[in-house]
Amino acid sequence: MRLHVSHVTRYQYAEPVSLCHSLARLKPRETASQRCLSTQIRVDPWPAVSRGYADFFGNRVNYFSIQQSHSSLEVTAQSEVEVTAPDLPDPTATSPWEEVASALRNVRRVDIIGARLFTLASGQVPPSPDATAFASPSFTPGRPILEAAVDLMGRIHREFDYDPNFTTIATPIDEVLAHRRGVCQDFAHLAIAGLRGHGLAARYVSGYLETLPPPGQPKLVGADASHAWFSVLVPGLGWIDLDPTNDQMPQEQYITTAVGRDYQDVAPLRGVFYGGGVHELTVAVDVDRVTA
Predict the structure, then answer these.
(1) 10-residue block means of pLDDT along the chain (292 residues)?
(2) Would 164 be classed as within a structural domain?
(3) Of 41, 72, 90, 39, nearest to 255 (Cα)?
(4) Is the peptide bond before 213 cis (omega within 30 degrees of 0)?
(5) In terms of Cα–Cα distance, which of 244, 121, 238, 236 is closest to 176?
(6) 261, part of any domain
(7) Which of 67, 87, 106, 160 is a plausible cystine mate for 48, CB 3.0–4.6 Å?
């Protein structure tokens, strides 16, 4: 399946901004099931400095600096991606989770050593005894790791309400857990905290999800949004993606842009600016199928 993504971010400032430095992680990654056919980022006003590079996690990053006075900033990313539905593994045929946790602590193999970073606490996923306790019923003794992770995904989906007005990007995991509500970012962080609390490697994934309108109704422009989910390391299979917001393993409707320890590693756009005063942020995302 081919998908076209348009992601437009606009800042409107109350006062002029004299200088800004920004990092954009808006270009899709290359994966075993995803191929980026074309991608470009347009910045208005035109930046004085612009360059691209790959970060520590292999994400595609664009740095730009605007060194002229401006009252608004618009960043537009356009990409076309070919996505193939990955083969879904049998969760019951994976290794017991305790064996995986032990291997992550003790085995000296390149892939295992590289994954240990994702067993550690990070800025937005600090140690959380409450999150570990919440995940514990899914991780019964000897249970296959992927079966346990799928069960945790389902429990978050069933027991938490999707509420875009309750949290911000800075809301702590324990607050989300206490009130049983949040958004995709919160659900991914909670699952990661629960997995890491059991000594397992889990990472944060950001990207897009194609959303289809109800039958007979047109698709609304700008109705799609950035999405987030998590992945867990399963020996022999690699990183397996799980989406607690929708209680499913991502298929060909999902586009991956970046992976990291938590949201701070993969924020679509972040930076610093001088001046500006109060500012207004608007984001519009559209994901459409490309037909031949």
Answers:
(1) 95 95 97 94 96 97 97 97 92 97 93 94 96 98 98 97 90 95 96 98 96 74 78 95 95 95 96 91 92 75
(2) yes
(3) 39
(4) no
(5) 244
(6) no
(7) 67
Place of tokens 């459409």: 288
Q: Domain holding 33: CATH number? A: 2.60.40.2250
Distance, in Å, from the CA atom of 45 to the CA atom of 26, rounded to the nearest integer, reads 18
Q: Strand 60-66 relative to strand 49-54: parallel, antiparallel, unpaired?
A: antiparallel
